[in-house]
Each structure stands twice: as structure tokens, then as C-alpha cells.
Design goal:
It is built from 4 helices and 2 strands. It is mainly alpha-helical. It has one domain: Orthogonal Bundle (Arc Repressor Mutant, subunit A). The chain has a two-stranded antiparallel ribbon with strand order 1-2. α1 packs across α4. The termini are far apart.
Length: 115
């Protein structure tokens, strides 16, 4: 299961449980098939439930509901996502600092004179 996509889908479901998989795919920036696969995996693991709208004219309309374990998963995935992004940020910050130091060093040193 793709954890980044899972957290996006869980967040979107929490915002609007009645949105279609097609709407989820647009909001998450992934294919409809990826959303379907992820929702199916989340449902199989008991993190979300899907229910048909009883009075819907379109009988394919579903509402996705986060289960208590789904809410807990959202918390765990959010913490892991935040830690990973913080580590990426720190690595980039260190790399930028190193590049800036290297440029400053080159600017301060004299270029060898051509003879």
C-alpha cells in the first residue's frame, strides 16, 4: 500500500466522505485505478467503510467513512510523513549550506593567474 497516497485519500475522505473515486483521483493527482486500489486496500484492512447512498439516483454513489482504526492510521501516517519530510528538509538545508560555503570559498580564493 502506498502510504503517501493513503494519507492523501484519508484526508480527502475526512473532508468529504461522499466524493467519488474520480474526484479523489483529481484531488490527489493520481490515476483513478490507483485510488480504487488504495481504497480497496484500506477497506480490506478495516480503515474505511463504504456505504451506498440509500436514496441516490446513481446507485454507484458511495460514502466513505473512516473507522476508528482508520483515524488512528491517519495519525500514524501523518506522524511518519512529517518525520520523513523533516528529514528531507534537513538534508536539503545541509546540502544548500554546503554549496553556499563552497561558492563563498571559491569567490574568496584567488584564481590562478594565466601566464
Amino acid at each position: 500500500m502506498n502510504f503517501d497516497l493513503s494519507i492523501k485519500i484519508i484526508r480527502e475522505i475526512q473532508k468529504d466522505p461522499a466524493q467519488s473515486q474520480r474526484a479523489l483521483s483529481k484531488r490527489c493527482g493520481v490515476s483513478l485505478g490507483s485510488v480504487h486500489y488504495c481504497i480497496k486496500a484500506l477497506a480490506e484492512k478495516g480503515y474505511i467503510k463504504s456505504k451506498n447512498f440509500r436514496n441516490a439516483k446513481n446507485k454507484l454513489a458511495y460514502a466513505y467513512i473512516l473507522t476508528p482504526s482508520g483515524i488512528n492510521l491517519k495519525k500514524e501516517l501523518t506522524i511518519a510523513f512529517l518525520k520523513r519530510k523533516q528529514a528531507e528538509y534537513n538534508a536539503l538545508r545541509d546540502e544548500i549550506k554546503g554549496l553556499e560555503d563552497d561558492l563563498a570559498q571559491r569567490a574568496n580564493s584567488k584564481a590562478p593567474e594565466l601566464q
